[in-house]
Amino acid sequence: MTTPVLVLVGPPGSGKSTVGRAVAERLGVVFRDTDADIEARAGKPIPDIFVDEGEPHFRELEQAAVRAAAGTHAGVLALGGGAVMAAPTRELLRDLPVVFLEVPLADAVKRVGLDAPRPLLAVNPRARWRELMEARRPLYLEVATAVVDTAGRTPEQVADAVLEALELKTPHD
Fold first, then answer.
1. For the chain, what is the radius of gyration of the CA atoms?
2. CA angle (80, 3, 159) in 5-degree steps
3. Which is it for strands 146-149 and 76-78: parallel, antiparallel or unpaired?
4. Are the C-beta atoms of 158 and 2 separated by less than 8 Å?
5. CB 59 within 8 A of CB 50
6. What are the beta bridge partners of residue 6?
7. What is the distance between the alpha carbons of residues 67 and 56, in angstroms, rounded to a whole number?
8. Is beta strand 98-102 parallel, antiparallel or unpaired with respect to 146-149?
9. How far apart are alpha carbons 44 and 27 in whole angstroms?
10. Average pLDDT, the chain
11. pLDDT in tens, 12-36
12. ∠ CA 104-119-35 to the nearest 5 degrees?
């Protein structure tokens, strides 16, 4: 079984995709995002899946995407913000190198924007983001091998911190 070199978890706006691409490039591996896998499989954007089929259906697709990627992807893998809510997903992550990208609300708002098409942040995004974090933060910490604070850092600085946290060497080291 092939497994990821590194899995990134965290809330919307934490930089999983941006940092994941930077880390993958530095390691000379492929980047994969389970949200993109879900959209490709469903043939539509995630907000449309939420509207058309509902959150439970999306979560089923998400679990399947994480299961497939965790068993076949040898690069850097970014999971959707809510993926850790599913116990089977947390179990899959148990033996993998997982980095929780922690982000303060103010930074997340700047990165995500309040008008971005994020289905779970559609109504009162600041309050909803806080609620999501209260529920998810313990789960991010449960699966994390390392925690990297993204506050005030550029994506390049966060990528450096991720590599350092897991003691991963780039081909240039």
1. 15
2. 55
3. unpaired
4. no
5. no
6. 76
7. 17
8. parallel
9. 31
10. 87
11. 778 899 999 999 999 999 999 999 9
12. 80
Phi, psi of 31 (to 5 degrees): -95, 140
Please state, as a whole number, how many other Cβ atoms lie within 10 Å of the Cβ of residue 170.
12
Token look-up 């089923």 returns 60
Q: Which tokens belong to 46?
A: 């995630």
- Which of 37, 20, 40 shows the shortest CA–CA distance to 29? 20
CB 159 within 8 A of CB 26: yes
Nearest-10 crossing angle of helices 105-112, 125-143: 110
At 53-111, the pLDDT tens digits run 998 999 999 999 999 999 999 999 999 999 999 999 999 999 999 999 998 776 666 65
| Cβ-Cβ contacts under 8 Å for 108 (sequence gap 6 or more) | 11, 12, 13, 14, 129
Structure token digits, residue 133: 């974090």
How far, in Å, CA of 136 to CA of 140, rounded? 6
